[in-house]
């Protein structure tokens, strides 16, 4: 679409230049051919063919006025001096400033106004009043040049606005792609990780009841992941949370699922859920979910401490593992998630006015902590 409009604009500009060239010919040639120039003046008398050539050169210069100003200026000056035709001077004064092709345009405009005044004074068809000649030169040459500067500034402003709009659109698109990637990561990775762990446990299970329980867990996680994906795709356009989005009340369930897959997790939970916004609660849920997933991938045998408590209008969430791993009979792909989890979480928490930090602990473990306000800024509720 952009290329189409650019092509239309180029053709429109070419058509305008051709029409200006035709206008110069239409105004200049009849005056020369029917003797309305000033060949009777001794110091300006020139052959008719030279006058016609000057008018044609001025007309041809209109075709290149957007890219080169000096051929147009020279041709219109010659046309004014040789044939007495002043209309090309006005077009040259406007074109050089509207296209910003002359750096010191005021001096050039003064020269064009001087040529206009000379041609006007020498013409036998004018009043030859000095004041009137000066007023006409200023009005019909300097004023078009000044209008051209306004036109150039207006076009420059439009270009800057369009460039700014494109840049904002690109930033918004990039932010939306990151948000979608983060939502998909948070929705899919946890379910797939639990399913993989349960599948690994099935391989080592001997009792039929235990196998059936693990298989039901796999089925439940798969069905829930599909449900969340469908709701996510529906809600992404509105930037709303899907109906199935978990809040802090889902954190104890996450801990129980982790314990069922072999992790040793301790939970300290103290949150007044009724005063917590959906966005803040969902962000805290995602923090715990990502922290437990990372423990499964990188320290599956470590002791884990999950804390979720509220103090002074701020919700503090942390997932800390001891780093002392023990052997476990499960396999989780080390590259699961593709590195979207922690950067996506940091952006999610920052949009809510909170702060996310993560890094190794002094004991050799790893800590993931977040502070989230109870009520995020209004722009995050949209």
UniProtKB/TrEMBL annotation:
InterPro entries: HATPase_C_sf, HATPase_dom, Sensor_HK_TwoCompSys, Sig_transdc_His_kin_sub3_dim/P. Its EC number is 2.7.13.3. The keyword Transferase applies. It is an enzyme of class 2 (transferase). Residues 176-240 form the Signal transduction histidine kinase subgroup 3 dimerisation and phosphoacceptor domain. Keywords: ATP-binding, Kinase, Membrane, Nucleotide-binding, Phosphoprotein, Transferase, Transmembrane, Transmembrane helix, Two-component regulatory system. GO terms for molecular function: ATP binding; phosphorelay sensor kinase activity; protein dimerization activity. The chain crosses the membrane at residues 15-34, 41-64, 70-93, 105-123, 129-152. GO terms for cellular component: membrane. Residues 284-374 form the Histidine kinase/HSP90-like ATPase domain. This is histidine kinase. The lineage of its organism: Bacteria, Bacillati, Actinomycetota, Actinomycetes, Streptosporangiales.
């Amino acid at each position: 679409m952009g290329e189409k409009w650019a092509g239309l604009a180029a053709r429109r500009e070419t058509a305008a230049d051709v029409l200006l060239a035709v206008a110069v010919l239409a105004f200049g040639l009849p005056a020369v051919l029917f003797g309305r120039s000033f060949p009777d003046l001794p110091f300006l008398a020139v052959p008719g063919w030279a006058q016609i050539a000057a008018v044609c050169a001025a007309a041809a210069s209109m075709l290149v006025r957007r890219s080169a100003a000096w051929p147009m200026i020279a041709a219109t000056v010659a046309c004014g001096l040789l044939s007495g035709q002043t209309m090309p001077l006005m077009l040259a004064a406007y074109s050089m400033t509207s296209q910003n092709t002359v750096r010191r345009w005021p001096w050039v405009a003064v020269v064009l106004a001087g040529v206009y005044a000379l041609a006007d004074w020498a013409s036998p068809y004018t009043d030859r009043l000095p004041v009137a000649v000066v007023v006409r030169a200023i009005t019909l040459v300097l004023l078009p040049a000044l209008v051209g500067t306004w036109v150039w500034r207006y076009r420059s402003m439009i270009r800057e606005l369009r460039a700014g709009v494109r840049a904002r659109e690109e930033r918004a698109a990039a932010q939306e792609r990151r948000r979608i990637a983060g939502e998909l990561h948070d929705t899919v990775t946890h379910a797939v990780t639990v399913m993989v762990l349960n599948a690994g446990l099935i391989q080592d299970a001997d009792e039929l009841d235990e196998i059936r329980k693990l298989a039901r867990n796999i089925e439940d996680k798969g069905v829930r992941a599909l449900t969340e994906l469908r709701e996510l795709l529906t809600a992404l356009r509105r930037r709303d949370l899907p109906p199935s989005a978990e809040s802090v009340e889902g954190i104890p369930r996450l801990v129980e699922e982790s314990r069922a897959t072999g992790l040793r997790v301790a939970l300290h939970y103290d949150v007044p859920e009724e005063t917590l916004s959906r966005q803040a609660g969902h962000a805290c849920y995602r923090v715990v979910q990502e922290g437990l997933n990372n423990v499964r991938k990188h320290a599956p045998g470590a002791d884990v401490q999950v804390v979720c408590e509220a103090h002074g209008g701020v919700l503090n969430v942390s997932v800390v593992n001891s780093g002392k791993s023990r052997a476990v009979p499960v396999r989780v792909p080390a590259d699961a998630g593709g590195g979207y989890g922690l950067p996506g979480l940091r952006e999610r928490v920052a949009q809510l006015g909170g702060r996310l930090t993560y890094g190794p602990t002094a004991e050799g473990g790893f800590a993931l902590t977040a502070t989230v306000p109870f009520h995020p800024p209004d722009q995050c509720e949209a």
